[in-house]
């Protein structure tokens, strides 16, 4: 996420729904006005990676990019192609216009950096233009112990962590040699990064006159941060910002959501801080979706880990009224090999607003946080079910049911069921627990105000 003028822009790699690898689509951009973070605009494709001379035949994918506004007022998109050792740069006069290829990061002698054995591995750029006009780029990848084959494949390059480089005003020429600023897990022992060594996904910001370095750690699912008084370090590890499995929240050690690699960044908007990250959908590593949570910071500039919710940028609990798509789930039972997961109907597209929960089976649950129940309510829920089963609704992960839905075979069509029970007033999460044979897909749910004095609503039709 980046703020340019009065809008928040979101840049990222672009997965293909149901794709068989990462980042198969071209770069796109979204933005929202700073005074209304619900009003997102899709700007479409901003850069065709086939415009890169190293990818004229479209053989390669565009991995995670970053964007900055240069000293000349233009906007620069930095990215790396998979299986090609070069940092590429594209430029545009506007934040979300049509970018044109500019060049590849090069040494002062003109050599494309990354082409020589011993160069630092060119991967996952993060860029910041400081107040003094200096341009700082961070990049790196550090395979973990379990990636022996990949480590061997990359042994020609330096993969010990994340490196810092200062660039010249032309935005492509290196002014300094790479300097290690965040160690990977294999050399993190004895440093503040021990146990949370750098893996990939750097992002750099400046808050409180300090430099905040966000990165994905050796545990993949978490975004951590380190702080320094200078852009070239030394950085000190400070903690975890978010886990896409909520590991660390309330002491949790096991995920309560599908986990995988993570990537994102911090942004401050009108005095509030937000952490952007991505979750994994469609029961695969290759269909990732951007998410965001508000995150708290104390007077010392230290952040507390953000809990994953269904609220995102809402700024408050969701209102317990109207219809919600099931795809806003933030907690999904993953303790079984055939766990439920978020997916969508149809093919790859940008208007995927029909996400739903697939494959609920006996013992599985999905959760939503948080709703403000101003009135006593009951729930209508739409399912596709293949047999008779029971869905218990709770307002605690393992609490007693406040409502029960009796499912029947819907023969492949969507059917609306009514819960028996009443949800009390207050702010609560909502959990759907599946009990019985067969499976069901949760499509959506709706809150309906319960009449005063009525104990339950139930319609077996």
Structure explained in plain terms:
It is a single chain. The chain is mostly beta strands and about 450 residues long. The strands form 7 sheets. Strands 20, 22, 25, 27, 28 and 30 form a 6-stranded mixed β-sheet that branches. Strands 21, 23, 24, 26, 29 and 31 form a 6-stranded antiparallel β-sheet that branches. The protein has a 4-stranded antiparallel β-sheet with strand order 1-2-3-4, with no helix packed on it. Strand 14 and strand 15 form a beta hairpin. The chain is elongated and about 75 Å long.
SSE-based structural type: mainly beta
Low-confidence stretches: 453-461
Integer average pLDDT: 95
Shape: elongated
Number of strands: 31
Q: Please state the CA-atom Rg, rounded to the nearest Å.
A: 24 Å
The share of residues in helices is under 10%
Number of helices: 1
Distance from N terminus to C terminus (CA atoms, Å) equals 47 Å
Tell me what portion of residues adopts beta-strand conformation: 35-45%
Largest sheet: 6 strands, mixed
Descriptive keywords:
single chain, 461 residues, mainly beta, six-stranded mixed sheet, six-stranded antiparallel sheet, elongated
Briefly say what this structure is.
The protein has 461 residues and is an all-beta fold.
Write the topology of this structure.
Blueprint: E1 2-4, E2 7-11, E3 27-33, E4 41-47, E5 66-69, E6 75-80, E7 87-92, E8 100-104, E9 126-129, E10 135-140, H1 148-153, E11 161-167, E12 179-183, E13 198-207, E14 210-217, E15 222-228, E16 236-243, E17 265-269, E18 272-280, E19 288-295, E20 318-319, E21 322-325, E22 331-332, E23 341-343, E24 356-360, E25 365-373, E26 377-385, E27 389-394, E28 403-407, E29 415-418, E30 426-436, E31 440-449
Parallel strand pairs: 20-25
Antiparallel strand pairs: 1-2, 2-3, 3-4, 5-6, 6-7, 7-8, 9-10, 10-11, 11-12, 13-14, 14-15, 15-16, 17-18, 18-19, 21-31, 22-25, 23-24, 24-31, 25-30, 26-29, 26-31, 27-28, 27-30
């Amino acid at each position: 996420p980046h703020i340019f003028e009065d809008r928040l822009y979101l840049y990222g790699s672009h997965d293909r729904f149901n794709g068989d690898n990462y980042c198969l689509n071209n770069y796109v951009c979204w933005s929202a006005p700073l005074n209304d973070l619900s009003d997102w605009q899709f700007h479409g494709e901003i850069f065709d990676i086939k415009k890169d001379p190293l990818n004229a035949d479209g053989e390669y994918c565009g991995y995670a990019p970053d964007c900055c506004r240069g000293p000349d007022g233009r906007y620069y998109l930095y990215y790396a192609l998979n299986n090609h050792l070069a940092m590429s740069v594209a430029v545009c006069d506007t934040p979300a216009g049509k970018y044109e290829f500019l060049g590849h990061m090069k040494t002062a002698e003109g050599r494309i950096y990354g082409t020589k054995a011993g160069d630092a591995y060119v991967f996952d750029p993060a860029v910041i233009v400081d107040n003094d006009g200096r341009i700082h780029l961070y990049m790196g990848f550090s395979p973990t112990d379990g990636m022996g084959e990949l480590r061997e494949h990359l042994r020609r390059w330096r993969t010990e962590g994340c490196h810092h480089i200062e660039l010249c005003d032309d935005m492509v020429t290196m002014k300094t040699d790479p300097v290690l600023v965040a160690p990977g897990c294999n050399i993190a022992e004895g440093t503040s990064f021990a146990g949370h060594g750098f893996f990939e996904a750097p992002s750099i910001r400046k808050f409180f006159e300090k430099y905040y370095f966000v990165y994905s750690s050796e545990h993949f699912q978490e975004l951590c941060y380190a702080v320094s008084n200078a852009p070239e370090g030394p950085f000190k590890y400070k903690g975890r910002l978010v886990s896409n499995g909520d590991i660390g929240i309330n002491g949790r050690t096991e995920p309560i959501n599908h986990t995988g690699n993570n990537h994102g960044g911090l942004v401050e908007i009108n005095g509030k801080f937000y952490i952007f990250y991505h979750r994994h959908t469609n029961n695969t590593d290759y269909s990732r979706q951007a998410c965001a949570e508000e995150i708290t910071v104390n007077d010392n500039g230290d952040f507390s880990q953000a809990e994953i919710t269904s609220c995102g940028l809402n700024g408050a609990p969701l209102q317990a009224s109207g219809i919600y798509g099931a795809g806003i789930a933030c907690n999904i039972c993953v303790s079984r090999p055939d766990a439920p997961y978020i997916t969508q109907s149809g093919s790859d597209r940008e208007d995927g607003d029909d996400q739903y929960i697939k494959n609920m089976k006996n013992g599985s649950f999905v959760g939503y946080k948080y709703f403000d129940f101003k009135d006593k309510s009951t729930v209508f829920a739409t399912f596709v079910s293949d047999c008779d089963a029971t869905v218990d609704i709770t307002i605690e992960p393992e609490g007693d049911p406040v409502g029960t839905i009796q499912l029947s075979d819907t023969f492949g069509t969507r059917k609306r069921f009514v819960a028996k029970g009443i949800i009390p007033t207050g702010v609560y999460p909502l959990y759907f627990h599946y009990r019985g044979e067969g499976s069901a897909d949760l499509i959506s749910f709706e809150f309906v105000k319960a009449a005063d004095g009525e104990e339950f609503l139930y319609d077996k039709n």
